[in-house]
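Moderator note: this is an archived Q&A kept for reference. The question asked for a predicted structure of one protein chain; the sequence and the answer are reproduced below.
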Amino acid sequence: MHRAFAALIVVAIVVSGCGKKKVKVAKIPPAPAPVGATERGMASWYGHPYHGRPAAAGEIYDMETLVAAHRTLPFQTYVRVRNLSNDKSIDVRIIDRGPFVQNRIIDLSHAAAKAIDLIGPGVAMVELTVIGVPANAEPALFAVQVGAFNLKANADRTTQNMIAAYGSARSVLRAGDQPMWRVLAGRETSAEAAEALAKRIREEQREPQAFVVRLDP
C-alpha cells in the first residue's frame, strides 16, 4: 500500500508539472503601418545624383515621379504628405530608404517636393498619413543606424564596437558619387524593440544621431 500511495504522489506531481508547463507561442511578424497611421517631422527632397539609379526597392529612381524614401515603411506603401506651413499635400509611393539624417522622416522626389512648395526652403515640417499598404509586405526586421562614414575603415571600426557591445551589427554601402558606409546595429522584430536599442546606444555610446531603420531583404 505504501508503494501504491507513493506512486500516486509521483503521478500527481508529474501531472501538476505538466499543467504549469509554458506553451511557446510563435512570434508573428508585425503588420505594416495601418491605413490612417500618421507621423510628423521634417521632410526633405533628393534628386541628382540618385536620379536614374536603382532605389532600395530595386526600381529605377525617377525624380520626376511621385515617389519617396522612408526609413521604416514597407516598399509600395502610399503616403499622403501635407506641408504644415501651407497645407498643400501630395500622395507618394515609398520605393527607397532614407533620409539618413537625424530629425527627418521622409525624402521626397523632386516632383513631389515641387507640388507642396518644398524646393525653395529644402526642408519643411510635414504630416504623413498612410493611405495604402502593400498586400504582400515582407516580414519586418529593424536595426539602428549608428552612423554613416565616407571611409570604410571607420565604418568597420564602429561595426566591431557595436558587435562587442550589442552582439549584432553590419556596415551597408550606399553607392553614389561619394559612397557612404552606414553602420547598422541590432536585428529586431519590432520597431519598438529597435527604438529601445537606439535609446541604449544614444545613452551608452553617446551617439545622439542613432535612429531606427528597416532592414530589407
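Archived answer notes: The CA atoms of residues 36 and 56 lie 25 Å apart.
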